[in-house]
Amino acid sequence: MTCCDLKCGLITGTVVGALIAVLGVILIPVGDMFIENTVHKETVLENGTLAFDTWTSVDIPIYRQFWLFNVQNPDEVLQQGAKPVLVQKGPYTYRTRFIPKRNITFNDNYTVSFLLPAGAIFQPSLSVGSEEDTFTSLNLAVAGVYSLLDHKLANLLIQRSNSSLFQNRTVKELLWGYKDPMLGSTLGVFYPYNDTIDGPYTVFTGKDDINKVATIERWQGETSLSYWNDPYCNKINGTDGSSFHPFLDKKDPLFFFSSDICRSISGVYEATVNLKGIDVYRYMLPPEALASPVENPDNMCYCTNSELTKNCTMAGLLDLTACRGTPVFISLPHFLYASSDIQEAVIGMNPSLEEHTIFLDVEPITGFTLRFAKRLQLNMLYGPSDSITILNKIKENTIFPILWVNETAVLDDETADMFKSELIARMDLLEGFQIGLIVVGLVLFISCLIGLIVVCNKPRGIGMKA
Fold it and tell me: Does 192 sit behind a cis peptide bond, omega within 30 degrees of 0 on the bond before it?
């Protein structure tokens, strides 16, 4: 090969290498645009998209695990005003949300409406005992009349039915209902539940604006709530938590509405975790969500009982009386983030951030929630009363925890594999192709450039004299 041929070859190699590297760089925004368009198309709620298929499916099981509190010293509480000593037992597990959404109707304003049926099936293999296990728990009727009725009338009802502050009930009775002897009606923490309907919901499909996908426009036909007497607290804000808009930013909180607690709430980014080979953003309920209005003024409109909450200075409790029609108080399990006065009124609370907080694991590109744990504790109130005989020895108001529930779901292995092959593998392949072009181009460019410099700087041969 002549010097000229070598130089030409090296120059050509340098140019080709540069072009290949530039092509790899150019493909980055093109590839990103392709991914973005594909994700936008598949996350819209309309027939045939991955989001719609996931949204309508009930293949991934959702469970409700219940831990019930058993009173160890009921006689001491009544006769001496002692603090209740409680021991939790659980989980008692039920499969829920196994009935598909009903009456799915697409509307003209890029929204879709639906009903969410409720049902629960006991899962013995995932439970510590049977539904017939018996607990000594707070008498729901007595606690109800204590909070809602004149105490002289309440005492009359209690004495006529020979009721007491505590009662023995099975798991099935406490959860799903029993005939109460005092009120003559069916009571239960979750009664009625089976064969009931939540909604209707109306959510945005995202077809006109992908950032609004799955965001709730209306619940029960209304764009806002009416429980809190304040526009801020009455706002229905966010999705139902099962999905969010694609391409999440860690800095932005995720808002979701829960009919269980009659309000909207938010989660903040905590960490990136690996879930079955998929990187997900973990969002957790921040302490300020249930902080006292002194710490978080936005919560002032949730404070509806200034006497109970000591002028709205107590944290960790949400009064659902206006929403539920019964004096029920929601907290995190074991009064996590609650004021010490609430925690110390009963014995046996051991709050744990790992076991008792709420979290969502959301895949950041699609916005799909791939795992969640919604943990809530249901409580009722009793306290001292001169008129109610069985409460004469009670010394202080007590928020009594009846049970706590962990509603949870996680994508199965088959869905995880599908998710990785349909999305992550394709993205990795495209990214690998882009990086490969850049690396090959740069190696070729640098190698040929070095060779060209060497050839050009090589000294010419000196001829011999005759």
Answer: yes
